[in-house]
């Protein structure tokens, strides 16, 4: 095998490609950007825990309940809730002084499908 490779290298001229591989991109730039954003929003343990809690509760969950369940303080919980809301994965309903959070199941399903479909292209 090394002998074949050696002959091949010796036959090559300067500037010739060493491989005959198709290096065309299969993912478009907008697809890689979207996948990157999708992965970023999921790439934090607290956000995943919030999604887990909210997805398991058919009703709505108050911030104080999330703070009690998570290993972080209320400002950090609020920060992650804001990121998830900005991404459209969760929403909230205000009732008086209270804000109750819930999963946007359609948006979460779309994100799951996008990630799965793009990852199939990667291998």
Summarize the structure.
With 123 residues, the chain is mainly alpha-helical. The chain has 6 helices and 3 strands, in the order αααβααββα. The mean pLDDT is 87.
Account of the 3D structure:
- The chain has 123 residues and is mostly helical.
- The protein has six helices and three strands; from the N terminus they run αααβααββα.
- It has one domain: Arc Repressor Mutant, subunit A (Orthogonal Bundle).
- 60% of the residues lie in helices and 11% in strands.
- A three-stranded antiparallel beta sheet has the order 1-3-2.
- Helix 2 crosses helix 6.
- The mean pLDDT is 87.
Shape: elongated
Which fold name corresponds to the CATH topology?
A: Arc Repressor Mutant, subunit A
**Based on the structure, what is the oligomeric state of the protein chains?**
single chain
Gyration radius over CA: 24 Å
Give the count of helical stretches: 6
- Give a count of the beta strands, DSSP E runs of length 2 or more: 3
Q: N- to C-terminal separation?
A: 27 Å
CATH homologous superfamily annotation: Winged helix-like DNA-binding domain superfamily/Winged helix DNA-binding domain
Count of structural domains: 1
Helix content: 55-70%
CATH class: Mainly Alpha
SSE string: HHHEHHEEH
